[in-house]
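Quick one:
INPUT:
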């Protein structure tokens, strides 16, 4: 595939056009569901004071053909549009391929593998382009998943049917064997950042050693679209035959939507690399779900110096202000793609989620953003209000805001991955 066919000719990053459906989206990228029972999405963006727009975004309603699931992401590009534009159009495909290829891995591990697979794909494109594609992007992603108390999807009683060509699991992923092979990242690296070529990352204390999946196994798993069961935090295996099963509904376009039974919990998994940020509003209070990876952060600076680099004036090797990103191939030894992840079981107090690039967060803090839009019921109006505030306060960057308002969340708590002194992620703890 040539560069001209892979990317738009515009100097601005182009996200897929937003469309609208009454309810069923058929899994199509950036399609709103106006009468969705679980959440509402709003997206607003502007290039601000910059000459070009290097941000991209993506969302999928009823992700993986399960009613109530959702994928949401914002990608903030630098040194060009290509990394952000590619991620906006393809990251969700990569995640879905990982979910079906490794159904027994936890969602944080799958998110980590997806970040690594995307990072590898961007590096491959850089090499194929003879350096014409050298950009990078920060990323904040969120996956709203429907699961039972054991962290499984026991209501899935049948193997998912193959989605149409324009659904999240696109033919480009199924046919790209090199991307599938590169996705086989050892789960022993699941959360901690890479610390340089030839060095092994520090392991989490509670992680058991797991085998790296072979490329052929991944390709076969993708071909078969998994076994119908997803990841588990505690015990794995097939669904209990006595577990309540969800019903299946044909939504047209060859897509069968699974309707989970009542009583299942909704868990919001987030992952970020760089300073794109995700903030949850819980009972009017801002709860940050992400971690800002910047050169000014002491833990990140130590990781970089331990790997042989340096931080000058808050920039990695005097160049890049963020310490983690997707792409940036020439600096990959220091600017890693390993994400920070959180896991949040939604409760009735959880009102909405804000995903945005630093063009917003440079202007307003977490609580200020929550206070600004809490009374706005419409998700699109809320995203527009946050964008307008950033522009009115003269942000110097591109701005992209993705706003998700939840409807009737389930009770629960919050778990997050803590960062140790070496910049690695420790075991999740209840918060």
């Amino acid at each position: 595939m040539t560069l001209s066919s892979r990317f738009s000719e515009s100097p601005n990053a182009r996200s897929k056009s937003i469309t609208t459906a009454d309810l069923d989206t058929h899994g199509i990228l950036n399609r709103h569901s106006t009468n969705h029972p679980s959440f509402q999405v709003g997206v607003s963006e502007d290039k601000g004071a910059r000459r070009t727009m290097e941000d991209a975004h993506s969302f999928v309603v009823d992700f993986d053909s399960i009613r109530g699931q959702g994928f949401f992401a914002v990608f903030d590009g630098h040194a060009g549009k290509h990394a952000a534009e590619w991620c906006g159009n393809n990251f969700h495909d990569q995640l879905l391929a990982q979910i079906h290829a490794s159904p027994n891995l936890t969602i944080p591990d799958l998110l980590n593998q997806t970040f690594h697979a995307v990072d590898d794909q961007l590096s491959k494109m850089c090499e194929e382009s003879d350096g014409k594609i050298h950009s990078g992007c920060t990323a904040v992603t969120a996956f709203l998943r429907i699961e039972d108390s054991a962290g499984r999807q026991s209501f899935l009683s049948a193997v998912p049917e193959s989605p149409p060509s324009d659904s999240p699991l696109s033919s480009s992923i199924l046919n790209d064997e090199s991307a599938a092979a590169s996705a086989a990242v050892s789960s022993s690296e699941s959360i901690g950042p890479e610390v340089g070529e030839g060095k092994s990352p520090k392991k989490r204390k509670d992680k058991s050693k797991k085998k790296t999946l072979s490329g052929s196994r991944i390709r076969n798993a993708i071909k078969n679209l998994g076994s119908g069961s997803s990841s588990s935090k505690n015990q794995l295996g097939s669904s209990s035959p006595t577990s309540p099963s969800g019903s299946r509904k044909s939504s047209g376009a060859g897509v069968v939507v699974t309707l989970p039974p009542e009583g299942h919990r909704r868990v919001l998994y987030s992952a970020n690399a760089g300073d794109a940020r995700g903030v949850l509003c819980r009972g009017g209070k801002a709860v940050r779900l992400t971690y800002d990876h910047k050169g000014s952060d002491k833990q990140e600076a130590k990781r970089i110096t331990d790997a042989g680099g340096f931080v000058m004036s808050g920039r990695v090797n005097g160049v890049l202000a963020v310490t983690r990103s997707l792409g940036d191939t020439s600096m990959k030894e220091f600017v890693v793609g390993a994400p920070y992840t959180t896991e949040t079981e939604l409760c009735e107090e959880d009102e909405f989620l804000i995903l945005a690039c630093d063009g917003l967060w440079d202007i307003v803090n977490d609580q200020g953003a929550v206070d600004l839009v809490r009374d706005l019921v419409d998700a699109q109006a809320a995203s527009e209000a946050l964008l307008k505030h950033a522009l009115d306060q003269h942000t110097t960057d591109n701005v992209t805001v993705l706003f998700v308002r939840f409807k009737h969340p389930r009770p629960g708590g919050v778990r997050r991955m803590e960062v140790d002194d070496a910049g690695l992620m420790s075991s999740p703890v209840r918060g």
